[in-house]
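Please review the protein record below. Let me know how this chain folds according to its C-alpha cells.
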Amino acid sequence: MLKIATEFYAESAVEAVSLLETDSEKGLTAEEVKRRLEEYGRNLITPAKNKPAWLRFISQFSQPLVYILVITSLITLFLNERLESAVIFGVVLINAFVGYVQEAKALQALEALAKSLKIQVQVIRNGQKRRVPSEEVVPGDIVLVASGDKIAADMRLIQAKELRVNESTLTGESLPVDKNVAVMPADTGLADRTNMLYASTLVSFGSGRAVVTETGDRSEVGRIARLVSSASDLDTPLTKKISRFSQLLLYVIFFLSLVVFVVGIFRGNSALDMFMAAVALAVSAIPEGMPAAVTITLAIGVSRMAKRKAIIRKLPAVETLGSTSIICSDKTGTLTENQMTVQTILADDREYQVLGNGYQPEGEIRLKEEPVAEAPFATPLYECLKAGLLCNDSQIVKKSSLYEAEGDPTEAALLVAAGKIKPFSQEQILEPRLDALPFESAFNYMATLHQGAENNIVYIKGSVEKILSCSVNQLQTDGSVKELQPEHITQQAEVIAARGLRVIAFAKISTHKNSLERADIAGATFLGLQGMIDPPRVEAIRAIQDCYRAGIEVKMITGDHLLTAKAIAKQMGFSSRDREEIMAVSGKQLAQLNDGEFDKVAKEAVVFARVTPEQKLRLVKALQKQGAIVAMTGDGVNDAPALKQADIGIAMGLAGTETAKEAADMILTDDNFASIHSAVEEGRCVYDNLRKFILWTIPTNLAESLAVIFAVFLGTLLPVLPVQLLWINMTTAVFLGMMIAFEPKEEETMSRPPLAPNLPILTGEMLLRTLYFGGLLAIGMYGLFYYELSQGASIQMARTIAATTLIMGETAYLLNCRSLSRSMFSIGLFTNPFIWAGISLMIGLQLLFIYQPAMQLFFNSSPLGVGSWSRIIILCIGLFAIVEAEKKIRKLFP
C-alpha cells in the first residue's frame, strides 16, 4: 500500500511524486498499473442504485388511505359484492399507475439530460504518452492536461504553464482559477488549493503535468458522493399530513363502524345485517377518490411546472415547494447571468456607464446619463477599450440565437464592451500581434505586442497594483500625458470594487522591439480601469422580492469571495431579519462555530461565501432543525449532499452535474431563480387545490355516513343503499372532486406566508364547515326522504331522491369549494371550465341513474317528478347560500 498523504497540496511536487512511488518523466510501468488497479480499484464512483420498476410501482401503495381502500375492497368481495370490490380496487390501481408513470417520466427526463462521464486521459506510462479510459487511471499516474480537458481524478501539479481551471462544479467559484506548483499551507481550503487539480473540473486555458493522488470514491468527488448517501430522505409535509389524516380517519371509521354494529345488535338486528351496515358506513365514510385526487392534482402541478421550466422527479415535491419557507440559492447562473459584463469604465477621472448585460451585442456607453456614440481616437476611453480588445485571447461566437464566450469570461466581457461604441462596433482593428506574454499569477498581468504605423505598441492588462507599478504617467483626454496619481487611482478602484465589481487596469508602451520579454514591461502609460461583474438576472431580482412578499426567506450560497457576494446581494435586494445591514459569513468563519452558534448564524445570515460541502449540508440541517421547509439549489458536485438533505433539492439542467441532478427533486431547464419562484407559486396552488378537495370530500362523506348512522340509531330504513353510496362516491369523486385540481391560482397565493409544517390538513375553520355542512346536507336529505315516504312514495323512489339530494348537494358545495375564503362570484364563474364540464357530465350520469331502465334495475332507482326535483334544487341553493354567507361573515369579522 502506498503512503497516501491527505494533504498533497502542502507537499512539494518532488515529495508528492516520491510519496506516490512514481517517476515524473517516465510514469508507471504496465505491471505497476495492473497492480494498483487491483489494489485501489477502477477510477469510478460507486453509483446510487435506482429502485427497480416493480418496486417503484409497489411503493405507490404505501399510504394508509390506500390500505383502507384495499381492506374495504376485500371485505366487499368476501360479501359477494363483486362490482363494488372491483370499482374500489380499480381506483387503487389507477392511483398507483398515475404515480408510477410520473416517476418513470421524471427518470426518462433525467436520463435525457444526462451526459456521459467517460473520458479519455493522456498519461505517461513506460516513458510513452498514451490515451487511456478515465476509469483505468490509478494513483501515481503522470497525467498531461490541456485546455478543454476534463480532470479525471485528484492530482498534484508538477508543472503548470498558464494553467487555468474552471472549478465551479466543485467549489462554486464562478471564474477560472489560476494554477501553479507552489506549496500551500496545511490549512488551505479546497477552493484555494492552486497546486491541485480535482476530478470533475475543467481546464479552461493552458497546460500542465500532474501526478494522480486519489481516484474513485477516495477523490474529493467521491467523498462528496458519500456525503450524499449519508443525507436523509425526508417525508414531505404533504406526505406527513395525509399520513396523519388517513390514520385518524381510519380510527374514526373503525370506531363508528364498531358502534353501528354493536348498537344494531342491541336493537335486535342480525349480525349479518349489521355487518353490512358497518360496511356501508365504511364505504360512505372513506373518500375513495382522495388518493387518486392527490396524485392527479400533483400530476397537473407537474405539467404546469414543466411549462415553467421545472422538471419534477417525484410527485410529492410539487406540494413541498408550496410549503417552502427558505430558499438557499446558488449565485452563479441562478441569481446571475453567468456572463461577465463590463458595467463601468474609468478613464482620466471620467466614469462611463456601460449598459447591457451578457454577451449579446446590445447596449451603449454613457457619460453622466448621456449616450457616447464614439470614442475619439487616442483618448483614454478609446485606448482603454482598444487595450481590452487587443490584449485578449478569447472570442464571442454565435450559436443559434445565443452568443457564447470561447475562452476566459473576463476577456469576453472586454470584447463585448468595446463592441458597444464606435469605431470598434463597426471596424476591425488591424494591428497584427507580434508577440505576447501570457497571464501568470506570479506576475498578475498579460501583455501583447502589436505592429503600429510608426512604433509598435504593447498593451497590458492586469491587477490595479501591478499596472500602476509598471506605469510612469497617465493618458489625458486631450491626448497628452500627465504625472501618474497612483493613490488617487487606487482609491477609485476601491470604490468600484466595493460595488462588487472586478477591476481590471490597462496601460500601453510604445516600443521599436519586435519581441516581448518580462523586462520590457516598464515605463508604461496608464490608460484606465474597467469594472465588470456577473450581473444579476433582472427577473431574479423581481422573484426575490416576490418571495419576500410571500413570506419566504432567500439565502445566497456561493463559492465567490465574501465582499463580491455581499455586493451582489445588496444589488438584488436581499435583506436580513431585523437588520439594516446584510449579514454575510464565510466558510472559514463557519468552521470556527459550535453547534449553537452555527444554528444562530444559519438563521440570521443571508450570504454564505466559500462554504464547503459539509457546511452546506450542516446549514440545511440547522435550518430544518428550526422548523423550516428548505429548498436548496445547486449545480455542482459539491452541492449534492445538501440537495439530497433539503426538503426540496433543485438542480440546474443546463450547468448542473449528473451528481447534482441525481440528488435533486426538481431540475430547472433554464437555470433561472425566477423559475423557482414560479414553481413555488404552482406548488402553493397545488396545495390549495388539495385542501379544497379535502374540504369538499370530507363533509360530503360525512353526510353519507350520517345517513347510515341515523338509520341504525333510529331503527329506520337505510335512506341510501350501499351500492348507491358507492355510485355517489365514485362518480362525484371523478366528475366533481377531480375538477378542483384544475383551479387556477388565486390572487393572494403569493401574498401570504407559507403554511406551517405542523398545520393540520383540516384546520379549525375547515372542520367547522365540515361539521355544519355535512350535518345540514344529511338533515336535508333525511327530511326529503321521509317527506316523500309520507306523501306515499315508494321506498325505491324515496331512496332515489335521497341519493340525488346527496349528489346535487355535493355539486352545489363544489362551487363553494372553488375558493377557501372568497365567494365563487368574486373569483370568476368561468375561470375553471373543467368544473362546469364535470358538473354537466355528473348531472347527465345522474339522469341516467334515475331514468335509464338498466340503471334503475341495477341501482334500484326510480323516476322523479318535477315536484321532487324542485325541492332538491331549492335545498341545494339554500345550502350553497349558507356557505357563501359564512365566508362573507368571516371576511367581515376575521
Q: What stands out?
A: The two ends are 73 Å apart (CA to CA). The chain has 30 helices and 28 strands. The CA atoms of residues 471 and 524 lie 4 Å apart. The longest helix spans residues 673-714.
